[in-house]
Amino acid sequence: MDNYQASSSYKGVIRIEDYLDTFKKADDRQRATSELLIPFALAETGDKLQKNLSDQRRYLRDYFDKLPSLDDKRAVVSSLANLSAFVRTGWMAQDDEPSLEGFGKFDDETGFCFQSLRALKHSVAVGALSRFYDEFRRSDEPERQQRKKDLIDAVKASTAFSMLWRGGFGGTENIDTIYRNVMRDGSPADSILPLAKRPKGALGAVSLSGYKRMLWSKLIEKFPDKDAWVKAAARVPIYSHSSTVAKFLLLAASDDATLDTQYEGLIIRGSKGLSPTVKASAWGADVHFSVEHIAPQASKANGWSEDLYEDPQTVDRLGNLTLLPSAANSYVGKRPWLQKRLVYKYFCSETPAEADATYNSFATAGLTVSASGEAVLGKATYMPMCKALSRFQNDWGIDIVDRRSTRIAELAYERIVGWLKP
Fold first, then answer.
1. Could you tell me the residue range of the domain that residue 210 belongs to?
2. Are 162 and 28 found together in one domain?
3. What is the pLDDT of residues 373-420, one digit of tens each?
4. Is 322 part of any domain?
5. What is the 3-class SS of 92-152, one letter each residue?
6. How many domains in the chain?
7. For the segment 216-257, what is each residue's pLDDT rounded down to a tens digit?
């Protein structure tokens, strides 16, 4: 017993219990155990493990019995301990910007990606990311810095693939199967080993290059180039599939964006640092909290163009969406376009004088402000995403939704594809 308590396995078990002990109720602890073992099996052998605890016990027993040495068994305990730390201090952490055990906080761009994957509840990616984290935790200098960079780049590559895949299709379209194939099978035709540690009794490899190449090949099978993806994403009613993907694409497209002076209502990429939105603080910031439908989802009232409702999916496309704080979103609601445009103009006023002048024009547009409305307007901070919308002088109809959907898709693709492309 004394020897065991001094062993690496004992220390690993303690780290695992550190996570499970955060769950005080027996049912919650059992569920957490079950949910931990699913990405563990994916990372170790590439197997799809069910939630049934008896099946999971059988898997663990069979797996351990087949390991060739005591060192291999100790390594498995260490990997499970590292996975539990990844889940406890990262994936399931309550903080908007979690600090991974032994790693610290991600940089702004990677933190943005990690938060978006968590918000998407994209748990199938945990198995893959835990392999990179495990390699980082096991490494020593000078390899440690490279392994840290590999984890960062793996988070960004996973995010780019998942958001581009979901953005192009709308639904999941077998994305879980793709990740499992990466873990279990690799890509024999390209001489890329599986990412799992011991898939099918063989040995896998943690290779960032291989991981990116496998995901990239799956993406370009369906969307061979930027134009193909943009054409698909511009037509997808993305909000009806996932408000998280919609929010991600809007933020990615808006990163350092400025007004397109040639086309009203559209944006173009501006100078770096102009108005960054691809950063950890932007994801959780109140100013970017909720997706707002410019033309209301289920209402032809208040003078909205009828062509927006001929296809019920139109209002859920990227071009009809923006981001507002939840209170501001509720305030603008189903108001007619003229009134909405004025409120957008107020939200993006650059001086108090400009805000006052806009507020004073509300009455001429038939917009009365209640006490609750005064509270929303009084707490409003500068919202740059409203500027292009406030400059669009024509009626809001299918044409601007089409053009804006395409532009947002273009800008989002350009901003994130470099995270994935080998």
1. 2-222
2. yes
3. 899 999 898 999 999 999 999 999 999 999 999 999 999 999 999 999
4. yes
5. CCCCCCCEECCCEECCHHHHHHHHHHHHCCCCHHHHHHHHHHHHHHHCCCCHHHHHHHHHH
6. 2
7. 999 999 999 999 999 999 999 999 999 999 999 999 999 999
